[in-house]
Amino acid sequence: MPTRKQKRREAKSKRHEYEFVYLDDEGNEVEAPEEGAAPEKRRNGAKPVAKKTAPATRSRRTPQPPSWQRAARRAVILGAVVFVLFGMLNKSHNYAGAAVAALIYTVLFIPFTYFLDRFAYRRFQLRDQSKK
Question: Which helix H or strand E contains 102, and what residues bound it?
Answer without folding.
Answer: helix 95-131
